[in-house]
Amino acid sequence: MPRLPKLSAPPLPAPLQAPPPRPGENGKRGPVEETKEAGIAVVDWVDERTSLSGAGRWLMFRKVPQGTNWFYTLGSATLFAFLNQAVTGVFLAMYYRPDPAGGAYESIRYVTNDVFLGQFVRGMHKWGSSVMVVLVFLHMGRTFFWGAYKYPRELNWVIGVVLLILTMVMSFTGYLLPFDQRAYWATIVGVNINGTGPLLGPYLSDFLRGGSEFGATTLSRFYAIHMLLLPGALIALIGAHLYLVTKLGTTAPPWQKAEAPQELREVEV
Ligand code: HEM
């Protein structure tokens, strides 16, 4: 088997390359040129001290298989939906009070009716959660039908399954937070369904309720899980997921025919 030639590193993108000298008036660079180059100087300054551009290039400039199409954007779309949830969630948390004696409901009412752009941000978060669930399922379908769960990507599939479960738990715990009638009764149904699971079911529903009664502890428990535990776990696992995507590359579509490497094709002729 002939050794394949080592691929050279991809070139730096144009904005990061050293600019050619551009003489302004009297052969000197003018203030416009200097301002334009200030950003590059900052990037250079940071890179000289951290060497982060190498990691950036490793992550961003990758060869992708022939036949890559729009279905490959579903993972990034899920990531974007997650970032939307993170940003809008931070603003909602600035107003939210996990108080079952009317405080939670009142804080949500206040955000919706009185805070500037509050209804918009709440809507982005509420609709964004459904968008993320739909996208994560579509992305999983794409990786399944493309056979991307096979060797060597089994671990990334397993991480993906955990990400799917965490996304669902995120939706479930968020649903209670407005603490209106619908949230309350829907969550009681959800917790009871969890309680019917074999062996662990009753322990799981007790854990979710924070005891045998549905009450104040349940709400603060759901809030802590929703805005601390799950986002932290999601960020860590998405990081591992993307590391493996970068390291292993993406799977070619199953209908794509393998091409012989250049040297072998030359030998055949
Ligand atoms: C928060 C949820 C998730 C995010 C943000 C995410 C993100 C990504 C991204 C950006 C990619 C590379 C581009 C692409 O192929 O679309 C990817 C690839 C992959 N993801 Fe996910 N993903 C998530 C959930 C899942 C789930 C639920 C599964 C399956 C159970 C999964 C399995 C995979 C696999 C196997 C690959 C490699 C694809 C290939 O080799 O072609 N991911 N993911």
Number of H- or I-type helical stretches = 10
Name the beta content range: under 5%
Order of helices and strands: HHHHHHHHHH
Mean pLDDT: 91
Structural class: mainly alpha
Low-confidence stretches: none
What is the assigned CATH homologous superfamily of the domain at 72-248? Cytochrome Bc1 Complex, Chain C
CATH uppermost class of the domain at 72-248: Mainly Alpha
Helix content: 55-70%
What are the distinct ligands in this entry?
A: protoporphyrin IX containing FE
> What is the rounded distance between the termini?
18 Å
Coarse morphology: flat
Largest sheet, in brief, is: none
- What name does the CATH topology of the domain at 72-248 carry? Cytochrome Bc1 Complex, Chain C
Notes on the protein architecture:
The protein has 269 residues and is an all-alpha fold. It has a domain at 72-248: Up-down Bundle (Cytochrome Bc1 Complex, Chain C), CATH 1.20.810.10. 65% of the residues lie in helices and 0% in strands. Helix 4 crosses helix 5 (118-145) and helix 6 packs antiparallel against helix 9. The site of protoporphyrin IX containing FE has 27 residues, from helix 3, helix 5, helix 6 and helix 9.
